[in-house]
Amino acid sequence: xxxxxxxxxxxxxxxxxxxxxxxxxxxxxxxxxxxxxxxxxxxxxxxxxxxxxxxxxxxxxxxxxxxxxxxxxxxxxxxxxxxxxxxxxxxxxxxxxxxxxxxxxxxxxxxxxxxxxxxxxxxxxxxxxxxxxxxxxxxxxxxx
Length: 144
What we know:
Helix content: 55-70%
Radius of gyration: 17 Å
Order of helices and strands: HHEHHEEHH
CATH topology of one domain: Arc Repressor Mutant, subunit A
Number of strands: 3
Distance between the termini: 38 Å
Structural class: mainly alpha
CATH class of one domain: Mainly Alpha
CATH superfamily of one domain: Winged helix-like DNA-binding domain superfamily/Winged helix DNA-binding domain
Strand order of the largest sheet: 1-3-2
C-alpha cells in the first residue's frame, strides 16, 4: 500500500509546478540564462537590497555558494552590489533593471497560476488554504 504524501510534499508539489511555470515564462521572455539556483537566491533580495550573508542564510546555502550565484547574477545584469548605507564596510545585493524585469514576469505568472488554482479549488477553499498556510508560516519561516 502506498502511503499518503506528508504535508511537506503536498505543499511542495504545487510550489514545484508554479516554479516550473515561472521559469518557462522567463525563458520565453528572453531570460533563459537564469537558473533555478540563481532564482531562488535572487527571490530573497529585499526591496532595498539584502546582504550576502542574509541571502545565504535565507537560501540555506553557504556564503560561498551564495557569493558564487550572486557573482553569476551580477555578470548577467540581474543584480548589482552597492554600499550598505547603514554600515560602510558592508555591501547590499540589489536588483538591477534586468532583475526587476524578471520579477515583473514572475509576478504576472504567479497571479495567473493562483487564478487557475482558485478556479479549480473555489474561492472559499482557496481562502481557507491561504489562511492555513499563512498560519503554518508562523512556525516554519524564521524570516517572515
